[in-house]
Specification:
- The complex is a heterodimer.
- By secondary structure, chain A is an alpha/beta fold.
- Chain A has 13 helices and eight strands.
- Helix content of chain A is 41%, strand content 10%.
- In chain A, the strands form two sheets. In chain A, strands 4, 5, 6, 7 and 8 form a five-stranded antiparallel β-sheet that branches.
- In chain A, helix 2 links the parallel strand 1 and strand 2.
- The longest helix of chain A is centred in the N-terminal third of the chain and has 21 residues.
- By secondary structure, chain B is an all-alpha fold.
- A two-stranded antiparallel sheet of chain B has the order 1-2.
- In chain B, a hairpin with a 2-residue loop joins strand 1 and strand 2.
- Chains A and B meet through helix 1, helix 3, helix 8 and helix 13 of A and helix 5 and helix 12 of B.
């Protein structure tokens, strides 16, 4: 019977410690910390915690900054909704800086004056931002990355690595079960692979898709061709049409030797190689007929942030040559500033991989149409109904 | 209800209300009841109302269009069927695994039983996201099991990762502790005397199970069934990480409809439909509790 008593004790301790763990959540508000919210993968939040924040301490010793993981884009959207709701009242939105968020994701937020206009705020280093990356004055592109194809070099020779969409299709069909991409809503690597298929089905012209030109009719005209292309690939994908549930899961399958090729984010794959998750000789290739999409992550700052001044200082610091160079070396990303404003030796070293342009795909209404369309038309597979 | 009221007044020393205990009792339960009303009951009716009442140009109107859309959408129905199927399979597997385990824990007196009980409870303390990644590492493709099989010169397993069996294995593992605990508690009602008497009368193990044990733990099994159905129906993490892209279980489907498709009214409709199905099993549970109470009076 003693086991009963000890179990009860154990349960009591366990629930007590669980309750203690839940406590700090209630103590988050207004404690002088600058709250940086991120919805990105852990490599990005690690970069903020381990690289940016210690560096910022030397610039602004008194500032206390906390990086909060909102989980994903939807988590950030909820935080932006909170800031929007607090706008015009005295309520503290409890968020001072969004690590990667665009104003268009919260409807009407620009007109309502929710976001700091960086051009008007006149923050330092703003003039260094790459003009090609600029979108609005309310967001600050600070890092870019691009989706590439990563392959297991022990099974795929570099000269056999596909360089066009057609070569890739041929490769997938001649190596059944060796390719996987993740569900488009669960991570950008699969998401941008799907978007590349949309480009392929529409004359490889990224200009055809803009933030403003989304309409149900236009989507019905442009997307089905892509579903056809992707359905054509499905039978020869991993397990005859399985899709991993995130960027990291795809990398994991590549690392475990389950598949030989998968789309990956440039920053994530370089870090995986650096950490030994993927072998040193992992091959990387970009399609030359039209690159897989990429994008810039954009800092936004709500106007009603409790620590707005510090948040703006932090944003300016992130654009400094110091951080921007580390985005290349430590994160494997592209700088948000023009390449003239990073360390000269780096500029030379990466001359070959500096992309002339990174094709991007607009968000807005397209996101929902593409993701849900994929789930309905591609995910079930043709044979599996 | 009349039974309950009359049995209350029959207590000795006057009615509960007359000696002031009723008020204290009501005060004690008022906090949880208020919380229940605020955080559970109100949102339920709010959700139902939001799916049924729409704002049109001419004012508010009653509409069931999202329900019609849900039940005429083959994709959504496939998701609902998968969820029901996974729930049924998990419930059956859980009973098949946990009943023998609970019987052993109830009647064994050895030290091994204590160790086994500890092991059976272990999954309760493993967060499901950790479990999901651990399962990818073990029974996933080229995972631990494959490595062992390969070393023994055997063929690899057909990995359940990214098929409906992935979440089923995870959910069953995750629910073993609660199911076992509830069954052991139910078996506590079976007295040793009854079992021994039946044994003395020459009852074989199967007859013992059928005529002595099962009739007494019917209630516990019903509770177990409703609890597992409720928790598996609303599962999110394991189907999200381990399951196939399509069909999706209701948990990931609702989340995606809400945050990706941004069709909140449809997401709430899916939630109401899931809730109604779960409510049926919840009713089983409430009924069995009520019956138990009445039996004890």
């Amino acid at each position: 019977m003693t086991s009963h008593f000890s179990r009860r004790g154990f349960l009591a301790t366990a629930s007590a410690s669980a309750a203690a763990l839940a406590l700090p959540r209630f103590a988050l508000a207004a404690d002088g910390f600058v709250n940086v919210y991120t919805g990105s993968d852990s490599n990005i939040s690690d970069f903020w915690t381990n690289v940016i924040l210690p560096g910022f301490k030397s610039v602004s010793p008194d500032a206390r900054v906390r990086v909060v993981d909102a989980g994903d884009g939807a988590g950030l959207r909820a935080m932006a909704d909170r800031a929007m709701a607090a706008l015009g009242s005295d309520a503290d939105p409890q968020v001072d800086l969004f690590e990667a968020y665009t104003p268009d994701q919260t409807e009407g937020s620009i007109d309502a004056g929710l976001w700091v206009n960086f051009a008007e705020a006149g923050i330092e280093n703003l003039d260094k931002v790459n003009p090609a990356a600029k979108q609005t004055d309310f967001d600050l592109p600070y890092r870019g990355s691009q989706v590439l194809l990563a392959y297991d070099a022990s099974r795929v020779a570099a000269e056999d690595a596909p360089k066009t969409w057609d070569e890739m299709t041929t490769w997938i069909h001649s190596n059944p079960g060796q390719f996987i991409y993740n569900r488009p809503d669960k991570g950008g690597s699969g998401g941008n692979f799907v978007r590349r298929a949309i480009h392929e089905a529409n004359g490889r012209d990224p200009q055809k898709f803009t933030l403003g030109n989304y309409s149900e009719d236009y989507a019905a005209e442009t997307l089905p061709g892509a579903w056809e292309l992707l359905n054509g690939l499905a039978p020869d994908l991993y397990e005859g049409g399985s899709y991993s549930s995130g960027n990291t899961q795809s990398i994991q399958l590549l690392a475990q030797g389950v598949v030989s090729m998968t789309p990956v984010w440039s920053d994530q794959v370089l870090q995986a190689i650096a950490m030994g998750v993927l072998p040193e000789n992992t091959g990387l290739v970009q399609l030359q007929d039209l690159a897989l999409c990429g994008g810039f992550s954009r800092i936004t700052v709500p106007t009603n942030a409790a620590n707005r001044e510090v948040a703006l200082q932090l944003a300016a610091y992130v654009l400094s040559a110091d951080v921007q160079s580390k985005i290349i070396t430590e994160l494997g990303g592209f700088p948000g500033v023009s390449w003239d404003h990073v360390d000269g030796t780096l500029r030379e070293k990466y001359a070959d991989v500096i992309p002339a342009s990174i094709p991007t795909f607009p968000g807005g209404g397209w996101d929902a149409a593409i993701n849900d369309g994929w789930y309905r038309n591609v995910a079930p597979g043709l044979t599996r109904g | 209800m009349t039974d309950l009221a009359s049995s209350g007044t029959r207590r000795t020393g006057g009615t509960a209300a007359s000696n002031g205990r009723g008020l204290t009792g009501l005060l004690l339960v008022s906090a949880p009841v208020a919380l229940l009303g605020w955080l559970i009951i109100y949102p339920i009716f709010n959700a139902i109302a939001r799916t049924l009442v729409v704002q049109t140009e001419t004012g508010t109107a009653f509409s069931v269009d999202t329900y019609v859309r849900f039940f005429s959408d083959g994709y959504a129905l496939a998701n609902l069927w998968l969820t029901l199927w996974v729930t049924a399979v998990c419930a059956a597997l859980l009973l098949a695994i946990c009943l023998p385990l609970a019987l052993y824990l109830r009647f064994a007196k050895s030290r091994v039983a204590g160790v086994l009980q500890g092991l059976a409870l272990f999954p309760m303390f493993v967060p499901s996201v950790i479990l999901a990644y651990a399962l990818i590492r073990t029974i996933g493709p080229n995972g631990g099991v494959d490595l062992v099989l390969n070393a023994l010169g055997l063929p690899k397993i057909n990995s359940p990762y990214l098929t409906p069996w992935g979440p089923i294995i995870g959910l069953v593992w995750d629910n073993i502790p609660l199911t076992t605990l509830m069954l052991v508690a139910g078996l506590g009602a079976v007295s040793d005397n009854a079992v021994e008497a039946a044994r003395d009368a020459g009852a074989r193990p199967l007859a013992l199970l059928r005529h002595i044990i099962f009739p007494q733990i019917g209630n516990a099994m019903l509770v177990v069934l409703s609890f597992t159905v409720l928790s598996i129906f609303s599962a999110f993490t394991l189907p999200y990480v381990l399951g196939p892209a399509s069909p999706e279980m209701m948990g990931p489907f609702m989340q995606r409809t809400f945050s990706q498709v941004m069709d909140t009214r449809m997401a709430v409709t899916q939630a109401v439909i899931s809730f109604l199905i779960c409510a049926v099993f919840g009713a089983f549970y409430v009924r069995s509790i009520a019956k138990n109470r009445e039996a004890r009076r």
